[in-house]
Design brief:
Distance between the termini: 28 Å
Number of strands: 14
Organism: Saccharolobus caldissimus
Helix content: 40-55%
Pfam families: AAA_14 (PF13173)
Largest sheet: 7 strands, mixed
Protein name: ATPase
Structural class: alpha/beta
Radius of gyration: 22 Å
C-alpha cells in the first residue's frame, strides 16, 4: 500500500532560504513534506499552550522549545515550529525581537494563521514569506498512480494509507464518513471556529451537489437568509474546505475542495451512512474526476477553469476573459452521436472543443481527443515543467 506521493512542492521546500510560513488546511501533508525535504537542525510541534513535542517524541515545555529554536537560529541553523497557530501570541512578540539569523520555518494548519501573521498589527509582519500547501495536484498523483479515478481520491493525502482502489473506498464509505466529520471538526478548531449544525448542513448540501447559495438558504432557512449563507460559504472557502469556480453566467459554483471529502459528504447527505448499515453501491465520482481533470487541463492550456451548469459544459478554459477551450469529460466511452452532440453544443461557447474519456480515446470530431494515454502524457508534461 502506497503511503507517500511525490509532489512538486518538494522542490519549493528544498529551496527555502528565508523565514517562511507554510500554511494550509489540516491533513494536506505539510509536516510530511517538511520532514522529508527540508534539511533541518531542530523540529518541534506545539501540542497545546504549554507543551511541545520534539522529533523524537519527547514532551517538553514551550519555553524550553522556543529557547532551543533561538539557539539553533543563532548558530545559523534551520529550525521548524509545527502547528504554529497553537503557540501563544506572547511568543510572537519574542520571536519578532530575534536577530534574523538562520532559517525559521513555521507551519500552520489553518488559513486564518495567514491573516494573523501578515496583519498590519502583527509583530511578525515582514519577517516571513508565505507558502501554501493545498491538496495534491491531480497531475502529480496521476503520473505515479496511473489510475485516473484513484488519482482523484489520492489528491487528499490522508486517504492514501487506507485504500488501494475506488471500489474499496465505496465499500468502506461509512468509516470514511466518520473520519471526514472529525477532520472537518479539526479544521474548524484550528481556525478558532465552532462547527455548528448550520455549517455542517451547508457542507452536506454542497457535497450533494447543491451549489447555489439561494437554494441552500431555502433548505436551511437561516436567520438572515441567503446573505447569511453566502457569508458562511465564503468563510468555508477561506478555510480551504470549499472551492469557488466561476461560471459563464457570472455566478460562482461552490463545491467541496477535496474530492474525498466531497464524496463522503455526499454519502452522508444522501444515505446517512454514519448512522445506518445501508450499502452504498456507487458515488458521483464522475463529477470529481471532471473537476480534477479540468483543473489539470486549465494549467496545461494556461487559462482559468470555468464550469457551465446552464449550458451543461464540464470544463471551460478562459484566457483574458475569452473562452478558448471547452471540454466534455466522460468516465466511459463516447458513442459517435454523443461526441457529435457534445462538439456541437460546446462550439457555441468556445473557440476550440475537446473530448476526454477515461476509458478510450474518443472519436476525432472536435479539435482534441483525449483518452487515458493522452491524459497521462499531459500530466507528465506538466510535472516536468
Amino acid at each position: 500500500m502506497r503511503l507517500y506521493i511525490k509532489r512538486r512542492e518538494e522542490e519549493k521546500i528544498r529551496r527555502i532560504k528565508n523565514w517562511t510560513l507554510i500554511y494550509g488546511r489540516r491533513k494536506t501533508g505539510k509536516s510530511t513534506l517538511v520532514k522529508k525535504n527540508l534539511k533541518m537542525d531542530y523540529y518541534v510541534l506545539i501540542a497545546d499552550s504549554n507543551n511541545a513535542i520534539t522529533l523524537d517524541d519527547t514532551v517538553i515545555k514551550i519555553d524550553e522549545a522556543i529557547k532551543e529554536v533561538k539557539g539553533v537560529l543563532h548558530r545559523g541553523g534551520v529550525a521548524v515550529i509545527d502547528e504554529f497557530q497553537r503557540l501563544p501570541e506572547t511568543y510572537w512578540a519574542m520571536i519578532s525581537n530575534w536577530d534574523r539569523e538562520g532559517i525559521l520555518v513555521i507551519i500552520g494548519s489553518s488559513y486564518g494563521i495567514v491573516n494573523k501573521v501578515f496583519d498590519k498589527n502583527s509583530p511578525l509582519l515582514g519577517l516571513f514569506t508565505p507558502l501554501e500547501i493545498d491538496i495534491i495536484s491531480y497531475e502529480d498523483v496521476l503520473t505515479q498512480i496511473k489510475d485516473p479515478v484513484l488519482s482523484t481520491l489520492y489528491r487528499d493525502p490522508w486517504i492514501i494509507p487506507f485504500i488501494n482502489s475506488y471500489e474499496e473506498f465505496v465499500s468502506r464509505i461509512k468509516e470514511f464518513s466518520l473520519i471526514s466529520k472529525g477532520l472537518i471538526g479539526e479544521v474548524f478548531k484550528e481556525e478558532e471556529r465552532q462547527l455548528t449544525d448550520t455549517y455542517y448542513k451547508i457542507l452536506l448540501l454542497l457535497g450533494e451537489g447543491i451549489w447555489k447559495t439561494s437554494e441552500i438558504a431555502g433548505i436551511i432557512q437561516p436567520k438572515g437568509g441567503e446573505g447569511t449563507i453566502s457569508s458562511m460559504v465564503n468563510k468555508l472557502a477561506k478555510m480551504g474546505l470549499v472551492q469557488k469556480i466561476p461560471t459563464m453566467s457570472r455566478e460562482n459554483y461552490y463545491r467541496i475542495r477535496s474530492p474525498t471529502l466531497s464524496l463522503t459528504l455526499y454519502a452522508e447527505s444522501k444515505y446517512a451512512v454514519s448512522e445506518t448499515d445501508l450499502e452504498v453501491k456507487d458515488l458521483p465520482i464522475g463529477k470529481e474526476v471532471q473537476f480534477s481533470v479540468g483543473e489539470m487541463l486549465s494549467k496545461y492550456f494556461g487559462g482559468v477553469q470555468y464550469y457551465s451548469p446552464k449550458e451543461d459544459i464540464d470544463v471551460i478554459i478562459v484566457k483574458k476573459k475569452k473562452p478558448i477551450w471547452a471540454f466534455e469529460i466522460k468516465m466511459g466511452e463516447f458513442s459517435s452521436s454523443e461526441a457529435k452532440e457534445a462538439v456541437k453544443r460546446m462550439s457555441k461557447i468556445a473557440e476550440k472543443v475537446g473530448l476526454v474519456s477515461l476509458k478510450e480515446k474518443p472519436p476525432d470530431y472536435g479539435d482534441l481527443s483525449i483518452g487515458p494515454k493522452e491524459l497521462l502524457e499531459i500530466a507528465n508534461q506538466l510535472v516536468k515543467l
